[in-house]
Design goal:
Number of helices: 10
CATH class: Alpha Beta
Number of domains: 1
CATH superfamily: Acetylglutamate kinase-like
Largest sheet: 8 strands, mixed
Distance between the termini: 43 Å
Number of strands: 16
CATH topology: Carbamate kinase
Strand order of the largest sheet: 5-8-2-1-11-15-16-14
Shape: globular
Radius of gyration: 19 Å
Length: 279
């Protein structure tokens, strides 16, 4: 009986959040072990399905760096990086597109569709969703975002589809570019005026002075970047988060996808389990 009562209490605690977020749009950057480990992948999909049934609309942007490296090595193509960015020549771009569009994107869509929720896979090339330009000639076909055209996303959402986006952009001449998925998620969240932007990672938020911060403001972020306490792979996430809240996204969350049901815990509990970034 006590166990059943505790479950009821959990549902009651979640009720105000369900009321507030029904009909809202959340943009999810999906990456890390939550995307590659079968156990955590299934839990993430379960969370998405439950949240969709309570009325939350999703747009999912995924990465895939480890899978790209793995396939490149199998094909005899040695990956090369400059300051954390993958050097992407023509051959590597083909591998990137094969993995992101042809494999990972379709796997996520299939997993969601298996639960009788409609998902559809696209890339930034579809309907010119992501207009890009070259970031640095040294990096080859690595792009930065010039513009997001969100019309296709709005159309899909109106038809109750969850768009799942591979972070490949295209320039005005039709040239494809590999783009950092963290930055794509941030710019899409801004373009669709998302209520939340959520980064699913392998770390429990942003670590400051040896501890994970529960909440950070834009001012905090500027300070800790200057002090070099935010570096490496966390830097593009935090910079993207900062831009998003400056441009109108209400909150950004960075959470650990290897904690079971971390998405539900962050959204439906008072304390949450990751780092929230607010204006």
């Amino acid at each position: 009986m006590e166990n059943a009562i505790n479950k009821a209490r959990v549902l009651i605690e979640a009720l105000p959040y369900i009321k507030n977020f029904s009909g809202a749009t959340f943009v999810i950057k999906y990456g890390g072990s939550a995307m590659t480990d079968e156990k955590y992948k299934e839990i993430f999909i379960q969370d998405i399905i439950l949240l969709r049934y309570v009325g939350i609309k999703f747009i999912i942007v995924h990465g895939g760096g480890d899978d790209i490296t793995s396939l490149a090595e199998k094909l005899g193509k040695k990956p090369k990086f400059i300051k954390g960015h993958r050097v992407t020549d023509k051959e590597m771009l083909e591998i990137v597109e094969m993995v992101l569009i042809g494999k990972i994107n379709k796997d996520i869509v299939k997993s969601i569709n298996n639960h009788n929720i409609k998902a559809i896979g696209i890339s930034g090339k579809d309907a010119n969703l992501i207009i890009a330009k070259i970031k640095n000639p040294e990096l080859g076909f690595v792009g930065e975002i010039k513009k997001i055209n969100p019309e296709i996303l709005k159309t899909l959402q109106e038809k109750d589809f969850i768009p799942v986006i591979a972070p490949i952009g295209v320039d005005e001449k039709g040239q494809s570019y590999n783009i950092n998925a963290d930055l794509v998620a941030g710019d899409i969240a801004i373009a669709v005026k998302a209520n939340k932007l959520i980064y699913i990672t392998d770390t429990t938020g942003v670590k400051i002075n040896g501890n994970y911060a529960e909440s950070l403001t834009i001012k905090d972020i500027n300070k800790y970047i200057k002090k070099k306490q935010i570096t490496g792979g966390m830097l593009p996430k935090v910079l993207s988060a900062q831009k998003a809240v400056e441009k109108g996204v209400k909150k950004v969350h960075i959470i650990n996808g290897t904690i079971e049901h971390s998405l539900l815990l962050e959204i439906f509990t008072k304390k949450g389990i990751g780092t929230e970034i607010v204006k």
